[in-house]
Amino acid sequence: MTELWEAAGEGVLSLPSGRRVRGRGLRHPFPEGAEPTLTVHLLGGPPPPVAWESRWLRWPDFRLPADREAARSLLKEAWRRAPEERVEVACGGGRGRTGTALACLAVLDGVPADEAVAYVRRNYHPKAVETPWQRRYVRRFAGG
After folding, report:
1. How far apart are CA 99 and CA 90, in angstroms?
2. How many whole angstroms separate alpha carbon 39 and alpha carbon 123?
3. Which runs of consecutive H residues, i.e. helices, occur in 51-115?
4. Distance (Å, rounded) from C-alpha 42 to C-alpha 131?
5. pTM of the model
6. Looking at the DSSP assignment, which residues form a beta bridge with residue 58?
7. In degrees rounded to 5, what are phi and psi of residue 17?
8. How far apart are alpha carbons 136 and 26 in whole angstroms?
9. Residue 103 pLDDT more than 80?
10. Residue 1 pLDDT exceeds 70
């Protein structure tokens, strides 16, 4: 088992099950401490190279994932791996796409879909999930 994220670490969201996932904005300096074991890049174009495992989900800024089935599959994988690995989700600023993905992970973790955005705003960043269609995406995520 890998050493997990510190609960008080920069950008770390603790889910109700105890899973911890880090959200990060790629335009900001890399946080101090351990590197992730998996980064899910939520970007409109190919991500920068990293020294650890990463996956790219094409997701343009202020929009929704280009492939919603791929998004669901990748977010489920991230959620499954989070109890034993340092998983992070990252976009340019770390709020809109990242917040939306974190809210979807909260739904997977048992937070009711209509409460997931508020949960992420309260526990990750107050401006997470930036657009009305991102909020709607989270509400509909539970239905598959």
Report:
1. 9
2. 20
3. 68-81, 96-108
4. 15
5. 0.97
6. 43
7. -75, -10
8. 25
9. yes
10. no
Burial pattern 83-101, b for ≥16 Cβ within 10 A else e, equals eebbbbbbbbbbbbbbbbb
CA neighbor of 74 nearest in space, from 47, 34, 35: 47
- Quote the mean pLDDT of the chain: 96
- Do residues 104 and 41 make contact, with C-beta atoms less than 8 angstroms apart? no
CB contact at 8 A, 89 and 101: yes
Task: Tell me the one-letter amino acid at 33.
Answer: G
CB 86 within 8 A of CB 3: yes
Statement: residue 142 has pLDDT above 90:
no
> Angle between the 132-141 and 96-108 helix axes, to the nearest 10 degrees?
20
Identity (one letter) of the amino acid at 107?
A: V
Residue carrying structure tokens 């280009």 = 66
Cα 2 → chain centroid: 19
Contact predicate 86/5, CB 8 Å: yes
**Cα separation, 37 vs 131, whole angstroms:** 29
Dist CA 101 CA 23 (whole Å): 9
